[in-house]
Amino acid sequence: MRSRLSDYDYVLPEELIAQRPLAHRDDSRMMVLHRREQRIEHRKFAEVSEFLAPDDLLVLNNTRVMSARRFSDDGKVEFLFLERLGPGRWKCLVKPGKKMRVGVVATINGAMARVEEICAGGERVISVDRAENFSEGGAIPLPPYVRRQSDPSDLERYQTVFAEVPGAVAAPTAGLHFTRDVLAELPHTFITLHVGAGTFQPVKTERISDHRMHKEEFLISDSAAAAINAATRILAVGTTTVRVLESAVRCDGQLVEQSGATEIFIHPPAEIRHVDSLLTNFHLPRSTLLMLVSAFAGREFVLAAYLEAIRGRYRFYSYGDCMLIL
């Protein structure tokens, strides 16, 4: 059993981290991993329908990324509004944190924002003297490995074409490859999991079982539960979808309409029982997402595929290429 953090490490040349999306969503490359044969092939995402049988069902996450990134009027402090706690009270991430201690005041678009509390995870609780929805109307929060400022194009491209339910601070990136035309050809349904800032939280414990996952809210509608229960095979689009399905399924293998939150941490030697295939992007080394994929396809096979992707100059992470695991 591979239970050490160092077992999930690899070296990625920085130039392979995609900084912008391709001109067309479905032009991405797609590495296909055949688990049974331990075989890899190289395809295009536009060919994904070739790997689905008529009774297969795609399950996608329709969360919508909030445009919740704001800057102080002097440009010195960055805020990411995570959660509205009450009238004029918000939980935020701030950068640089050292400037925003308890009692410090900054102005955001003319509104006075005062730090009331510093949370255990480093987030700030702030009070704002204006009734405004700070979780929308700002900039899209790009991941930290995208080393540029977001621009108007990211408002569209760092969002799936089926994004519907606001609440995420990061995109379910496996869904970014789909166009409306591709999706229209495939049987599918939607669940919702609001991706939180904790998705970028590094694992700091060498024994991975000591890591504690962040909590994320999810929703499964009655129609989605019925479609998933009736499907012969499930192709989960993204690790967020896997986390919902593995968290919400009953002991009899069935789903029901529900809302809740999940802190599930899927890593070897756990088995993923309720997903047959997985479409996912390439993930950071030493990350919980890489561990989830390793639980599904085997650590050695996954890391060998990553090395082949590096040799083949695949594009990595949120705006990068994808992997289909069968």
The first-level CATH class of the largest domain is given as: Alpha Beta
Helix percent band = 10-25%
Strand content: 25-35%
Low-confidence stretches: none
Number of helices: 6
- Let me know the number of strands: 17
In CATH, the topology of the largest domain is named QueA-like
Quick structural summary:
This protein is of the alpha/beta class. 16% of the residues lie in helices and 28% in strands. The chain has 6 helices and 17 strands.
What does the secondary structure layout of this molecule look like, with pairings?
Blueprint: E1 29-34, E2 39-44, E3 56-61, E4 63-65, E5 69-71, E6 78-86, E7 89-95, E8 105-108, E9 111-118, E10 124-128, H1 154-157, E11 165-168, H2 180-184, E12 188-193, E13 216-220, H3 222-230, E14 233-237, H4 239-248, E15 258-262, E16 277-281, H5 288-297, H6 299-311, E17 322-325
Parallel strand pairs: 1-17, 3-12, 3-14, 4-11, 14-16
Antiparallel strand pairs: 1-2, 5-6, 6-7, 7-10, 8-9, 9-10, 12-13, 13-15, 16-17
